Amino acid sequence: MRLGLALPHYDTSFAGRPASWSGVQRAALLAEASGYDSVWVSDHLFLDWSKYGGAPDVRGTLECWTTMAGLAASTERVRIGSLTLCNDLRSPALLAKMAASLDLLSKGRLELGMGAGWYEPEYRAAGIDFSSPGTRIRRLGEAAEIVGRLLEGEEVNFKGDHYELSGAVCRPGPAQSPRPRIWLGGKGDRLLDTAARTADGWNFSWLGDLDAYAERAREADRACERHGRAPLDLRRSAGVYVLAGTDETDARRRFERLAERTPRGVLRGLTGGRRVSWDEFRADRVAGSADEVVERLRPLADKGVSEVIVSLGALPFQTGDEEDIELVGELIAPALGEFGGRKE
Protein backbone atom coordinates (compact mmCIF):
# COMPACT_ATOMS: atom_id res chain seq x y z
CA MET A 1 0.00 0.00 0.00
CA ARG A 2 1.36 3.40 -1.03
CA LEU A 3 1.47 6.58 1.07
CA GLY A 4 0.56 10.06 -0.15
CA LEU A 5 0.60 13.44 1.60
CA ALA A 6 -2.23 15.96 1.35
CA LEU A 7 -0.11 19.09 1.09
CA PRO A 8 -0.93 22.07 3.35
CA HIS A 9 -1.83 24.88 0.96
CA TYR A 10 -4.55 26.86 2.80
CA ASP A 11 -4.18 29.73 5.23
CA THR A 12 -3.46 28.25 8.69
CA SER A 13 -3.01 24.71 7.33
CA PHE A 14 0.79 24.47 7.67
CA ALA A 15 1.70 24.94 11.35
CA GLY A 16 -0.93 27.69 11.56
CA ARG A 17 0.85 29.94 9.06
CA PRO A 18 -0.59 31.77 6.01
CA ALA A 19 -0.61 29.88 2.71
CA SER A 20 2.64 30.22 0.76
CA TRP A 21 4.44 28.56 -2.12
CA SER A 22 7.58 28.19 0.00
CA GLY A 23 5.59 26.25 2.61
CA VAL A 24 4.00 23.91 0.07
CA GLN A 25 7.31 23.34 -1.68
CA ARG A 26 9.03 22.64 1.65
CA ALA A 27 6.36 20.12 2.63
CA ALA A 28 6.63 18.34 -0.74
CA LEU A 29 10.41 18.13 -0.58
CA LEU A 30 10.23 16.74 2.97
CA ALA A 31 7.69 14.17 1.81
CA GLU A 32 9.89 13.09 -1.08
CA ALA A 33 12.99 12.85 1.11
CA SER A 34 11.27 10.88 3.87
CA GLY A 35 9.65 8.18 1.73
CA TYR A 36 6.16 9.21 0.61
CA ASP A 37 5.02 7.95 -2.78
CA SER A 38 2.90 10.94 -3.78
CA VAL A 39 1.82 14.47 -2.92
CA TRP A 40 -1.67 15.89 -3.52
CA VAL A 41 -3.27 19.31 -3.89
CA SER A 42 -6.95 20.19 -3.63
CA ASP A 43 -8.83 22.61 -5.84
CA HIS A 44 -10.68 25.62 -4.43
CA LEU A 45 -10.64 29.34 -5.14
CA PHE A 46 -10.91 29.85 -1.37
CA LEU A 47 -12.39 27.87 1.52
CA ASP A 48 -13.65 28.22 5.07
CA TRP A 49 -13.66 25.77 7.97
CA SER A 50 -17.31 26.13 9.06
CA LYS A 51 -18.06 22.63 7.75
CA TYR A 52 -15.62 21.35 10.39
CA GLY A 53 -16.81 23.54 13.27
CA GLY A 54 -14.62 26.57 12.57
CA ALA A 55 -15.56 30.16 11.79
CA PRO A 56 -16.88 31.07 8.32
CA ASP A 57 -13.87 33.31 7.68
CA VAL A 58 -12.49 32.90 4.16
CA ARG A 59 -9.12 31.13 3.95
CA GLY A 60 -6.85 31.77 1.03
CA THR A 61 -5.19 29.04 -1.01
CA LEU A 62 -2.78 28.54 -3.86
CA GLU A 63 -4.38 27.56 -7.18
CA CYS A 64 -4.28 23.81 -7.68
CA TRP A 65 -2.91 23.34 -11.19
CA THR A 66 -0.28 26.08 -11.02
CA THR A 67 0.92 24.61 -7.72
CA MET A 68 1.16 21.13 -9.25
CA ALA A 69 3.28 22.54 -12.08
CA GLY A 70 5.61 24.09 -9.53
CA LEU A 71 5.82 20.77 -7.71
CA ALA A 72 6.68 18.97 -10.94
CA ALA A 73 9.66 21.31 -11.34
CA SER A 74 10.69 21.05 -7.67
CA THR A 75 10.54 17.28 -7.12
CA GLU A 76 12.05 14.27 -8.87
CA ARG A 77 10.37 11.08 -7.66
CA VAL A 78 6.98 11.55 -5.98
CA ARG A 79 3.83 11.33 -8.04
CA ILE A 80 1.77 14.53 -8.15
CA GLY A 81 -2.00 14.41 -7.88
CA SER A 82 -5.13 16.56 -7.64
CA LEU A 83 -7.55 15.63 -4.85
CA THR A 84 -9.77 16.58 -6.53
CA LEU A 85 -10.21 19.10 -9.35
CA CYS A 86 -13.53 20.96 -9.30
CA ASN A 87 -14.89 19.96 -12.69
CA ASP A 88 -16.89 23.13 -13.24
CA LEU A 89 -13.84 25.41 -13.06
CA ARG A 90 -12.33 24.16 -16.37
CA SER A 91 -13.59 22.83 -19.68
CA PRO A 92 -12.66 19.17 -20.31
CA ALA A 93 -10.83 19.98 -23.55
CA LEU A 94 -8.64 22.50 -21.73
CA LEU A 95 -8.15 20.14 -18.79
CA ALA A 96 -6.92 17.37 -21.07
CA LYS A 97 -4.39 19.76 -22.60
CA MET A 98 -3.24 20.86 -19.13
CA ALA A 99 -2.94 17.24 -17.98
CA ALA A 100 -0.92 16.15 -21.00
CA SER A 101 1.46 19.08 -20.57
CA LEU A 102 1.93 18.52 -16.85
CA ASP A 103 2.50 14.82 -17.39
CA LEU A 104 5.27 15.70 -19.84
CA LEU A 105 6.76 18.29 -17.48
CA SER A 106 6.78 15.80 -14.60
CA LYS A 107 8.14 12.95 -16.75
CA GLY A 108 5.03 10.83 -16.28
CA ARG A 109 4.20 11.46 -12.62
CA LEU A 110 0.66 12.90 -12.87
CA GLU A 111 -2.37 11.41 -11.08
CA LEU A 112 -5.51 13.17 -12.33
CA GLY A 113 -8.19 13.38 -9.64
CA MET A 114 -11.54 14.89 -10.61
CA GLY A 115 -14.63 15.76 -8.58
CA ALA A 116 -18.08 17.27 -9.08
CA GLY A 117 -17.49 20.32 -6.85
CA TRP A 118 -19.33 20.99 -3.58
CA TYR A 119 -18.41 24.41 -2.16
CA GLU A 120 -21.22 26.74 -3.18
CA PRO A 121 -19.61 30.04 -2.05
CA GLU A 122 -16.81 29.77 -4.63
CA TYR A 123 -19.36 29.06 -7.37
CA ARG A 124 -21.28 32.22 -6.45
CA ALA A 125 -18.09 34.27 -6.22
CA ALA A 126 -16.94 33.13 -9.66
CA GLY A 127 -20.36 33.55 -11.28
CA ILE A 128 -20.77 29.81 -11.97
CA ASP A 129 -24.18 28.18 -11.68
CA PHE A 130 -24.32 25.81 -8.71
CA SER A 131 -26.42 23.02 -10.19
CA SER A 132 -27.99 20.13 -8.30
CA PRO A 133 -25.66 17.32 -7.15
CA GLY A 134 -27.07 14.98 -9.79
CA THR A 135 -26.44 17.48 -12.58
CA ARG A 136 -22.90 18.19 -11.38
CA ILE A 137 -22.12 14.47 -11.25
CA ARG A 138 -23.56 13.83 -14.71
CA ARG A 139 -21.47 16.72 -16.01
CA LEU A 140 -18.41 15.22 -14.29
CA GLY A 141 -19.08 11.88 -15.99
CA GLU A 142 -19.13 13.50 -19.43
CA ALA A 143 -15.96 15.44 -18.63
CA ALA A 144 -14.09 12.35 -17.41
CA GLU A 145 -15.00 10.51 -20.60
CA ILE A 146 -13.88 13.40 -22.79
CA VAL A 147 -10.60 13.91 -20.92
CA GLY A 148 -9.79 10.19 -21.04
CA ARG A 149 -10.42 9.93 -24.77
CA LEU A 150 -8.39 13.04 -25.56
CA LEU A 151 -5.45 11.89 -23.43
CA GLU A 152 -5.46 8.56 -25.27
CA GLY A 153 -4.91 10.41 -28.54
CA GLU A 154 -8.39 10.25 -30.00
CA GLU A 155 -9.86 13.03 -32.11
CA VAL A 156 -13.05 13.59 -30.16
CA ASN A 157 -16.47 14.43 -31.52
CA PHE A 158 -18.88 14.48 -28.61
CA LYS A 159 -22.44 15.64 -28.10
CA GLY A 160 -23.76 15.17 -24.58
CA ASP A 161 -26.18 16.91 -22.27
CA HIS A 162 -23.49 19.25 -20.96
CA TYR A 163 -20.59 19.37 -23.45
CA GLU A 164 -20.31 19.41 -27.23
CA LEU A 165 -16.95 19.01 -29.02
CA SER A 166 -16.10 18.81 -32.68
CA GLY A 167 -12.70 17.57 -33.82
CA ALA A 168 -11.02 18.12 -30.44
CA VAL A 169 -7.44 16.86 -30.14
CA CYS A 170 -4.73 16.89 -27.46
CA ARG A 171 -1.24 17.05 -28.98
CA PRO A 172 1.40 16.37 -27.87
CA GLY A 173 0.04 13.57 -25.74
CA PRO A 174 1.05 12.68 -22.16
CA ALA A 175 4.21 10.84 -21.15
CA GLN A 176 2.30 7.93 -19.60
CA SER A 177 0.82 5.26 -21.81
CA PRO A 178 -1.99 5.08 -22.59
CA ARG A 179 -2.52 8.14 -20.32
CA PRO A 180 -2.38 9.28 -16.66
CA ARG A 181 -4.83 7.56 -14.35
CA ILE A 182 -8.14 9.33 -13.80
CA TRP A 183 -9.55 9.19 -10.27
CA LEU A 184 -13.00 10.34 -9.20
CA GLY A 185 -13.52 11.45 -5.62
CA GLY A 186 -16.77 11.13 -3.67
CA LYS A 187 -19.03 8.79 -1.73
CA GLY A 188 -22.57 8.79 -3.12
CA ASP A 189 -24.17 6.13 -5.31
CA ARG A 190 -24.24 8.33 -8.44
CA LEU A 191 -20.58 9.19 -8.07
CA LEU A 192 -19.60 5.55 -7.60
CA ASP A 193 -21.59 4.56 -10.65
CA THR A 194 -19.83 7.29 -12.65
CA ALA A 195 -16.41 6.18 -11.41
CA ALA A 196 -17.13 2.57 -12.36
CA ARG A 197 -18.09 3.70 -15.85
CA THR A 198 -15.45 6.34 -16.63
CA ALA A 199 -12.48 6.27 -14.23
CA ASP A 200 -9.43 4.20 -13.36
CA GLY A 201 -9.75 4.76 -9.63
CA TRP A 202 -12.00 5.99 -6.84
CA ASN A 203 -11.01 8.07 -3.82
CA PHE A 204 -12.89 8.08 -0.50
CA SER A 205 -12.08 11.12 1.67
CA TRP A 206 -12.07 11.65 4.55
CA LEU A 207 -12.12 8.39 6.48
CA GLY A 208 -13.77 8.46 9.88
CA ASP A 209 -15.33 5.03 10.19
CA LEU A 210 -13.88 1.92 8.55
CA ASP A 211 -17.34 0.38 8.34
CA ALA A 212 -18.56 3.39 6.34
CA TYR A 213 -15.72 2.91 3.88
CA ALA A 214 -16.43 -0.82 3.62
CA GLU A 215 -20.10 -0.17 2.80
CA ARG A 216 -19.18 2.34 0.07
CA ALA A 217 -16.57 -0.06 -1.31
CA ARG A 218 -19.23 -2.74 -1.66
CA GLU A 219 -21.40 -0.28 -3.57
CA ALA A 220 -18.41 0.50 -5.82
CA ASP A 221 -18.09 -3.23 -6.50
CA ARG A 222 -21.79 -3.43 -7.40
CA ALA A 223 -21.43 -0.43 -9.71
CA CYS A 224 -18.54 -2.12 -11.51
CA GLU A 225 -20.57 -5.27 -11.96
CA ARG A 226 -23.50 -3.29 -13.41
CA HIS A 227 -21.15 -1.93 -16.06
CA GLY A 228 -19.57 -5.28 -16.84
CA ARG A 229 -16.31 -4.36 -15.14
CA ALA A 230 -14.33 -6.50 -12.72
CA PRO A 231 -14.38 -4.76 -9.29
CA LEU A 232 -10.66 -5.45 -8.91
CA ASP A 233 -10.08 -3.24 -11.96
CA LEU A 234 -11.20 -0.08 -10.14
CA ARG A 235 -8.32 1.16 -7.99
CA ARG A 236 -9.12 2.47 -4.50
CA SER A 237 -7.51 5.20 -2.40
CA ALA A 238 -8.56 6.71 0.91
CA GLY A 239 -7.92 10.07 2.54
CA VAL A 240 -7.20 9.67 6.25
CA TYR A 241 -6.50 12.06 9.13
CA VAL A 242 -3.30 10.82 10.80
CA LEU A 243 -1.33 12.01 13.81
CA ALA A 244 1.59 9.80 14.86
CA GLY A 245 4.40 9.89 17.39
CA THR A 246 7.32 7.66 18.26
CA ASP A 247 5.19 6.49 21.20
CA GLU A 248 1.92 7.60 22.78
CA THR A 249 3.61 10.25 24.92
CA ASP A 250 5.14 11.79 21.81
CA ALA A 251 1.82 11.54 19.94
CA ARG A 252 0.08 13.41 22.77
CA ARG A 253 2.76 16.11 22.62
CA ARG A 254 2.12 16.53 18.92
CA PHE A 255 -1.62 16.67 19.55
CA GLU A 256 -1.19 19.50 22.06
CA ARG A 257 0.82 21.45 19.50
CA LEU A 258 -1.73 20.74 16.77
CA ALA A 259 -4.58 21.96 18.97
CA GLU A 260 -2.83 25.29 19.44
CA ARG A 261 -2.23 25.68 15.70
CA THR A 262 -5.70 24.64 14.50
CA PRO A 263 -8.33 27.37 13.91
CA ARG A 264 -10.77 27.84 16.77
CA GLY A 265 -13.97 25.85 16.61
CA VAL A 266 -12.34 22.68 15.27
CA LEU A 267 -10.49 21.33 18.32
CA ARG A 268 -11.53 24.04 20.77
CA GLY A 269 -14.45 26.43 21.10
CA LEU A 270 -14.77 29.47 18.87
CA THR A 271 -14.59 31.70 21.95
CA GLY A 272 -12.41 29.51 24.13
CA GLY A 273 -13.99 27.02 26.47
CA ARG A 274 -13.64 23.25 26.34
CA ARG A 275 -11.12 21.63 24.02
CA VAL A 276 -11.41 18.24 22.32
CA SER A 277 -9.63 15.61 24.40
CA TRP A 278 -6.99 13.20 23.11
CA ASP A 279 -9.43 10.29 23.33
CA GLU A 280 -12.12 12.25 21.46
CA PHE A 281 -9.61 13.20 18.78
CA ARG A 282 -8.64 9.56 18.29
CA ALA A 283 -12.24 8.39 17.98
CA ASP A 284 -12.56 9.36 14.30
CA ARG A 285 -8.92 9.89 13.34
CA VAL A 286 -5.95 7.53 13.15
CA ALA A 287 -3.74 8.72 16.00
CA GLY A 288 -1.22 7.17 18.36
CA SER A 289 2.24 5.68 18.21
CA ALA A 290 3.64 4.89 14.77
CA ASP A 291 3.07 1.19 15.41
CA GLU A 292 -0.56 1.83 16.39
CA VAL A 293 -1.14 3.95 13.29
CA VAL A 294 0.25 1.19 11.05
CA GLU A 295 -2.05 -1.39 12.63
CA ARG A 296 -5.08 0.87 12.29
CA LEU A 297 -4.34 1.41 8.60
CA ARG A 298 -3.78 -2.27 7.88
CA PRO A 299 -7.52 -3.08 7.42
CA LEU A 300 -7.65 -0.63 4.51
CA ALA A 301 -5.12 -2.75 2.63
CA ASP A 302 -7.19 -5.82 3.48
CA LYS A 303 -10.19 -4.08 1.89
CA GLY A 304 -8.32 -3.37 -1.34
CA VAL A 305 -7.04 0.18 -0.82
CA SER A 306 -3.83 0.68 -2.80
CA GLU A 307 -2.96 4.15 -1.46
CA VAL A 308 -3.58 6.09 1.74
CA ILE A 309 -3.40 9.88 1.41
CA VAL A 310 -2.81 11.41 4.84
CA SER A 311 -3.73 14.80 6.20
CA LEU A 312 -1.50 15.27 9.23
CA GLY A 313 -3.95 17.23 11.35
CA ALA A 314 -7.61 17.79 12.16
CA LEU A 315 -8.59 19.38 8.84
CA PRO A 316 -8.16 18.41 5.18
CA PHE A 317 -4.74 19.37 3.84
CA GLN A 318 -3.45 20.36 7.27
CA THR A 319 -0.01 19.61 8.73
CA GLY A 320 0.74 20.45 12.34
CA ASP A 321 4.50 20.64 11.92
CA GLU A 322 7.33 19.70 9.56
CA GLU A 323 8.47 16.94 11.91
CA ASP A 324 5.11 15.20 11.50
CA ILE A 325 5.80 14.83 7.77
CA GLU A 326 9.20 13.31 8.43
CA LEU A 327 8.09 10.86 11.12
CA VAL A 328 5.20 9.45 9.10
CA GLY A 329 7.37 9.09 6.02
CA GLU A 330 10.27 7.45 7.82
CA LEU A 331 8.34 5.13 10.17
CA ILE A 332 4.98 4.46 8.51
CA ALA A 333 5.61 4.49 4.75
CA PRO A 334 7.97 1.45 4.86
CA ALA A 335 5.47 -0.55 6.91
CA LEU A 336 2.58 0.27 4.57
CA GLY A 337 4.74 -0.78 1.65
CA GLU A 338 4.67 -4.33 3.05
CA PHE A 339 0.88 -4.46 2.88
CA GLY A 340 -1.14 -5.66 -0.07
CA GLY A 341 -3.96 -3.76 -1.75
CA ARG A 342 -5.25 -3.57 -5.28
CA LYS A 343 -2.93 -3.44 -8.24
CA GLU A 344 -0.79 -0.37 -8.83
Explain what the structure shows.
This protein has one domain (2-336): Alpha-Beta Barrel (TIM Barrel), CATH 3.20.20.30. Helix content is 41%, strand content 19%. The protein has helices at 21-34, 64-74, 92-105, 120-126, 133-151, 189-198, 210-226, 248-261, 278-283, 290-302, 322-336, and strands at residues 2-6, 38-41, 79-82, 85-86, 110-115, 156-159, 164-168, 182-185, 201-207, 235-245, 268-269, 272-275, 286-289, 307-311. Helix 1 links the parallel strand 1 (2-6) and strand 2. The relative contact order is 0.16.
Q: What is the CATH topology descriptor? A: TIM Barrel
Q: What string, H for helix and E for strand, traces the elements in order?
A: EHEHEEHEHHEEEHEHEHEEHEHEH
Helix-strand category: alpha/beta
The CATH fourth-level homologous superfamily: Luciferase-like domain
Largest sheet descriptor:
8 strands, parallel, barrel
